[in-house]
Amino acid sequence: MTTFPEAFLRLRSILLRTIFLVTLALAGAHFESAAAFAQEPQPQAAAEAPLVDTPSAQAAKEIEKAKVQLGSLQDSVKENADNDDALVGLATKADELSRAVITISVNLRPRFDQIKNRLTEIGEPPKDGQPPEAQIVTDERNALAAERAQINAVTGDAENLSIAVTKLMNEIIEMRRQLFADTLFRRTEISISVLDDAASAFVHEISEFSQALASWASFVWKFKRFPLFAAIFLSLASALILLSGSYRLFGSYLRRDEAVEDPSYIGRLSIAFWSTLIRTLALAVLLVTSFFFLNSFNVLRPDIAPVIGALFGTIGLVYFVGRFVNAIFAPSEPHWRLVKLSNLGARSIGYCLSAMAVVNGLDYLFGTVSEAMGSPLVLTVVRSLIAALIIGIILIAVSFSKPMLARSGDPDAPGRHWPRGMAIILRVVGAALIVTALAGYVGLARFVATQLIITGAVVATMYVGLLSGKAISRQESFGDTFFARFLARRFNLGPVAIDQVGLLVGLAMYAVALLVGIPLILLLWGFHVQDLQLIAFRLFTEVKLGGISISLLGICTGILLFAGVYLLTRWLQRWLDGNVMARSHVDLGVRNSVKTGIGYLGVGIAAIIGVSAAGIDLSSFALVASALSVGIGFGLQNIVSNFVSGLILLVERPFKVGDHVVSGTAEGIVKRISVRATEIETFRKQAIIVPNSELINGLVGNWTHRNKIGRSEIPVSVSYDADPQQVMDILLELTAKIPLVMRNPEPHVEFLRFGPYSLDFELRFFLADMGDGLTVRNNLRIEILKRFKAEGIEIPLPQSDLTIHREAALVLPNAVKEHADGHENSKDRPVEEEERPVRQLRGRAAES
Q1: 845 CB burial (10 A radius; 0-12, 13-18, 19+)
Q2: What is residue 26's predicted lDDT score, i.e. its pLDDT?
């Protein structure tokens, strides 16, 4: 991209050239030589001059530097072909160089697009027979074409260089793989002479190491006493801080409560996982910080530092396996045991695992001592041979034990044999270790033995962590834990909220188990820390799915930015509504429209910012957008219609929140207006969701559109004996006593009609808020009834006159008598049939 100084210099050059050419054109009539000078091919050199400061020229310089770095890396790879640690560092540098080359090529793309667009605007040079163009246009075209050619050349060099770097990285990976395989499958002859040489070398090594250790200890005590104590103090403080914080957060999951006789499965899993993880991490922090501070304060000598590091590693390994054995097998606490083993079986398996961890740790420690003392290779071979033989014998011996829980379920009873498949696996693995070691493949046997212990313990701990997370996230399981009860008391959370917190805690335990266990396993299987850093960097910055690059870090950043802008929008909505519009006494409907509009605008801006930060190219969704447009035209037309109608309602505001509306489907108070539908609450508190298109296209009555003034009516009926004028005066008098009744327009009484049995009046009055109509009408009716009783005015009941003709009066008694006589003679006739003639006669009499 062109910077501001570069653009300024280029603009100044173009202006000076233009002034020069215009001056020559004006003086051409008198100075032909000057005009001829203007036609000379000097501007081509001027057009090429700006290439020195262009972005393409700078990129070319960077590409040349990258080529030099690539050559240096290739030479270093050849020199360190047998050094795995050096190859790891070179692979990291190669990856950084690859990303730098790609960045150079990507940064040139905007400038290339600018040149392409500008050349399109300028157009092709004039052909023969066409009018000549201005010289300044020709110069600019030539300069742009030259810069475009240089950009193409730089881009081509960058692509070739990127391919070469990728090839070098693949070579490094292949070298490391071959080194790993050669180390594992290197064969050594095992004989009596080899054992004799190893024994003598071991004695000599012990003597030299004792002298070196004694001299170092004496030196430290005399000259490095204060740094030694300072390092120990700082490391202890770091470990105690981690341990105390862990106890405050997970104290109930680090100790077993002896008072609990039958702990739940989730309780046993949680204590096993957290007690192993937290306490091992605390010790690891102590050991790592101790080594760091001792090395930083120059307490460790170069020959002693690796030995101290190996000693700390051995201590950490043995402690981790011990914590794992105690957490899983619980030798002295059968009710906390996670597997169905007898007490004797749990103790025996625990001792065997601890013994194998000690053997592996000592093998590693003595190997480091041999490297520090420069001992012969034969000593390392024999030591690894002995370690592999011991572990193989332990595995075979364990396969013949009886660790399984008795069928009675009593942990103190003698146990049962292993399942047949498990016993065979243990014997095969143990025998394979022994045979492999005796055959001379000591490195392979040592590697397998180490992975059996450490990787097995890590995988088992991860599995326990995953089981704990699964048990905690199970519905209605987290509420029984101590942490859940604390949260419920502290934050007053209900069962549903606690259950949701349990789901989050379970997911967190999944994450902890995987994020801690997987890197440990990778480190155990030959990966370096730099490898893990490179994997993590690529995972979070660039994941390739076909031709699409996804950045997890960018996606997380986009999500966080979206959430931040969304929260800012919600805060702005509340602030405008509660401070600006509320203090200005803005109408409630206007406030709702403004809040809704700001909300949708904020969500749209947040989505755009989030998508842009995530690195998603919106142009790739052009095809999807075109397909959606077809779908909108057919299947989504109702949704779009409601959406547009909602925008019209928010802008035009034919009704607002709080209005009393009557539509074809509902009558009530408007509670919420969204872009899709409007919520109307009836007076029976029923929420009715009405699509916005129906409110726009249909008839809607709004009682409170302009204001809340409304007319109320109370019908009143009195007897014909009452004085109409007195009735009207009483109604107006009672209405005048109500303060909520408006005086303008003034109340009045309408004499409606002469009814069938009453004189009908209607009291009409206006209220400033028609929402008060129900209360006012009720109070007025009560007062009217009391006053009419006091004045002796009667409110008549409905009346009707019955006319009976004479013939029907004579027929009715005879028919009733005949019916009674017939009833005596037919007692078995149904009651319904007996009463039917009487009802028929009564109906005829009423009709007459």
Answers
A1: middle
A2: 39
